[in-house]
Amino acid sequence: MSPARQGATTVRSEEALATVRVEPDGAGGALIVLAGEIDQDCAPEVQDVLISALGACPAGVVLDLSGVTFCDCSFLNVLLHARLRAGVGVDRDRRFRIRSMSARVARLLALTGTLAYFPHGNGPRPHPDGNGPGPYPAEAVSSRAGRPDGRRGGLRR
Fold first, then answer.
1. How is 93-136 classified by DSSP, letter by letter?
2. What mean pLDDT is predicted for residues 105-134?
3. How far apart are CA 40 and CA 30, in angstroms?
4. What pTM, to 2 d.p., does this model score?
5. Sign of torsion, CA 132 66 93 113?
6. Model confidence over 37-74: pLDDT tens digits?
7. Which among 46, 54, 63, 91 would be 20 to 30 A from 9, CA to CA?
8. CB 43 within 8 A of CB 92
9. 81-93 b/e with 16+ CB inside 10 Å = b?
10. How far apart are CA 46 and CA 31, in angstroms?
11. Helix H or strand E segment including 82
12. How does DSSP classify residue 91?
């Protein structure tokens, strides 16, 4: 099954720390909702979904990243790669947009100077713990190596 197939859903399991849901927008495009922890373990799968959706949806792809609780530079690479694959100029801005993003995603984009590449986002949403979109400690975007529970990330199909 193609990752961009309308209605395709990736389910969360004990091993999967991230989920992705692809929904048709009714106009030939797709809404892709990402949630959880997006890191080097699942970034290739997320990239496959985005690239597949861009190929299958001529009207473009809109991302909802408001549920992303952790992301690292591998996710940034995925976003930048998908942005390049979407085309150039105004066409790219129509074909690949971020509708909303979590504070963690906004922080990653701001720290790397790439926030301006994604101008359509609504900005960071308040963090579920109530701390709002303010500055997060360095560990909020650091590697999860050595997790005490020993779990590894990844998307489950």
1. HHHEEEEEEEHHHHHHHHHTT-GGG-TT---EEPPTTTTTTS--
2. 69
3. 24
4. 0.69
5. positive
6. 999 999 999 999 999 999 999 889 999 999 999 999 99
7. 91
8. no
9. ebbeebeeeeebb
10. 14
11. helix 73-85
12. H
Helices 73-85 and 43-56 cross at an angle (nearest 10°) of 20
**Residue showing tokens 């099954």:** 1
Q: What was the pLDDT predicted at 140?
A: 33
Nearby residues of 7 by Cβ (< 8 Å), 6 or more positions away: 22, 23, 24
Mean pLDDT of the chain: 75
Q: What's the one-letter identity of residue 48?
A: D
Q: Which residues pair with 33 in a beta bridge?
A: 21, 64
- Tokens encoding 95: 């074909």
- CB burial string 44-60: b at 16+ within 10 A, e below: ebbbebbbbbbebbeeb
Give dist(CA 75, CA 134) in Å, integer. 21
Distance CA 67, CA 104 (A): 10
